[in-house]
Each structure stands twice: as structure tokens, then as C-alpha cells.
Automatic annotation (TrEMBL):
Upper classification of the organism: Bacteria, Pseudomonadati, Pseudomonadota, Alphaproteobacteria, Hyphomicrobiales
Protein name: Aminotransferase
Keywords, alphabetical: Pyridoxal phosphate
Keyword GTP-binding: no
InterPro entries from the UniProt entry: Aminotrans_3 (IPR005814), Aminotrans_3_PPA_site (IPR049704), PyrdxlP-dep_Trfase (IPR015424), PyrdxlP-dep_Trfase_major (IPR015421), PyrdxlP-dep_Trfase_small (IPR015422)
Organism: Rhizobium nepotum 39/7
Amino acid sequence: MLSNSLIELDRAHLVHPVSSFRGHEKLGVRILKSAKGATVTDMTGHQLIDGFAGLWCVNAGYGHDSIVEAAAKQMRELPYATAYFDIGSEPAIRLASELADRAPGDLNHVYFTLGGSDAVDSTIRFIRYYWHAKGQPQRDQFISIEQGYHGSTTAGSGLTALPAFHAGFGVPYDWQHKIPSHYAYRNPVGSDPAAIIASSLQILKDKIEAIGPERVAAFYAEPIQGSGGVLVPPPGWIKAMRELCRSYGILFVADEVITGFGRTGPLFACADEDIVPDFITTAKGLTSGYVPMGAVFMADHVYDTIADFAGDAAIGHGYTYSAHPVSAAVGLEVLKLYEGGLLENGRRAGARLMAGLEGLRSHPLVGDVRGRGMLAAIELVTDKDKKTPLPAAAAPARKVFDRAWENGLIVRAFANGVLGYAPPLCCTDSDIDTIVERTLKTLDQTLEDPAVRAAMA
Ligand SMILES: Cc1ncc(COP(=O)(O)O)c(C=O)c1O
């Protein structure tokens, strides 16, 4: 009764992100009630392993009392402090300092946001300001990568390169350019890492030359493209792209909103890749999704250029909830948990997950298995030689997701038949094995789908 009335209230009033409004009205909402570790329970009592950590964000897992205590303590003591007017709060200052200590190279300055989209949006503003400060305001062209996701703000959605975020919204703007993804499984140059790197370098170079090197402000890359289908570049790819940008004096932004905070192993995926970008954007795992927060990391030279140019004038970029003390208190506690064993557990569990998913390679529907750490995907095809995607009639985003859900597993089911995994770092061996077993069951059921059968005949 309660559950039914909630479904009706949701239908009538709650607008869901990135949803078909009419489709959602028809389907109705699935309401989650509680969670512990890597397991969530819905209103009907159905228990599921959360193989996607909410929205690749609950890296620490659910139900950590110490995080709840940290938030409650901060709420009692000081629930809010602005960071405007040269005011601050202890947790925000401490978190900025702890993060700067751990960030690659000289990314020593942290601007806190509410999430990933406004972190990316903030970089666009800081970068425009930076080039203005450098006396090169004509550097106003931005390059990002097809299949990339950089959030959903008005400007950031144009750096994003997924059609649903553009159609009908009037983006991308003419200053937002794209180059093709490294997408190793479907790269026209084949899957050889050196060939992919050489090709991406040439394409980026050509793009920069076509725009005019003196016009290009910045290049954006995710260390692993998440929302585009968990596309993992070959080792050395991001370093090569970073160096090319450096040679042109173009700022390099690593968008680590998904890859940060243990998702691929270390706190920052850039550490694995041995690069120091000019900016890193983070969110999600920063507070493990318990409360909203994002962070922009800025290199010394960027900060100093902006600071020296502005002098006594205020740099007009700010949010009421920037450096929120409760979010910062949660961030500090989450960082403690990561370094107190969760990163290590995530590395071990990630190796088990990758091995388990590799074991599914021989399944008739599995065309590709890819990932790093606790970020992985399998790509389903109906013909392995031709790499034929699942037919639209198989409606993977809906039907494969539903089958997995019924089997007690949450995965990200992309419309093109990619299944994405980003489980909490706290997963036990048994959690990981259950994810793999339930995936296999879901694949076997998908194999029986008449639309899939017809495509394979
Ligand atoms: C790489 C990347 N950047 C930015 C964002 C936007 O973050 P948010 O949804 O917190 O606004 C996301 C979200 O998934 C992301 O994956």
C-alpha cells in the first residue's frame, strides 16, 4: 500500500534524470529502501548486489557508521559555513590539504563543488579566465573525445559527446570540438596499442592544427571513458596525449569523476598513468555518494596565473555550497576508510572481478571484456567475428537490466549492449563471485530472447 502510493507520487511529481518522462510514467519507479556493504534492498524486500555502486559513486560501500557519525557530528557543531568573504571551516580546509597532499604533482589547489558537472563547468570558467590572464583571450576553443561524458551543465554537456545530451538542447557550441575515441574494440586502426596511440596523436594534432594552435584552450579526457561504455585506452595513451597538449601549450584536464578514489586502484587514475594534468575534476567517490561534493584540482601555475592577474579583485566564480563543512567531514572520513584498507580490498576485488568477467569471454554473446580495477565492462554481440551489436529489438538497456535486476544484480546496461560494472570497493570474494554468476545467468536468459536468437540465426 505504502509502496503503491509512493509509486503514484513519484509518477506525478518526481522528474528523473536522463529518463524518458513518458517511459518512466509507464514503468513506474523501483524504490530502494536500505543497503549494507554491497547489497541493496528494495521496498518489496528484494535484495540485490549493487554491481554499479549506485551511479559509480558509493566506492566505500553502504552502511559505514563512521561516515554517518562524522556527518552528524559536523551537523551538530556547524552545519554550514560559507567559504565566501574569506571565511572557512576546519573540515573543508583539512580536506583540501589532505587531497592536495595526495594529488599528482603540483595540483595543490582545490575548489570544491557539489558534484562532477559543476566541477567540469568550473574548469571551463577557470580556463577562460586563465587565458584571459595570460593575455591570450583568443584561446577559447575546447576539444574533448567522442563517447566522452563531462556532465550535464549547459556548457559541460557540449564537451560531453553522447547524442542524448545534445539533441534538442542546442549544444555543442561551435567552440566545442571532438576527436574520435581510442575505443580499442572498435578502433578502425585495430586493437594494437601502439597503432591506437599513434592514430589518436595524429588525429588530435590534425584537430589542433585545423582549429589553429593559438586558439585552443584545453583538451579534456577521462582516464577511462565511463558513460561512453567503459572504454579503456591502451597503457601510455593518456600520457602521450598529455605530452602532445603540453607541446602546444594547451591545458590538459583529466576528468576523474568516475576513475578517482580507488575506482581503478589508486586514489587517482592519473597516478597509474604517471601524468600530472593542469586540472583534475573529481566527485562521486570523494564522499562515496553519502553527501554531494565534487572538487577541481588546479596546478600551481594555473592558480598563480589567475591569482596574480586578479590581484585584489575577486574572481567571480562561486557556489553557496562550495566547501560545505558536512560534505567535507564526510570526505575526510571516507578518505580514512579508503586508506585504512578499502583501496587495498578494491585492488584485490578488482582483480577477482576482471578474472571472473574474463571467464565469461567464451559465452556466445560476449564480444569484449575490458576494465581496470573495479571498473569493467563486457560488450555483447550477436556475431563475434563481425562484432555485430545486439539488435535494437533486444532493448538491452531495458531488458538486460530487468533480467539482471530479477536475478538480484544491478549493472549498468547501455543501449548498445555494453554491461558496465563499478562495484563498491568493500566487496567480498563472495560478492564478486555472485556478480559474475548472476551476470552469466542474465547472459543465458538474454541468449533465449527471440530478438537475439533471430539476429544470431
Ligand atoms: C567523467 C564524468 N564527468 C562528469 C560527470 C558529472 O558528474 P555529476 O553527475 O556528479 O554531475 C560524470 C558523471 O557520471 C562523469 O562520469
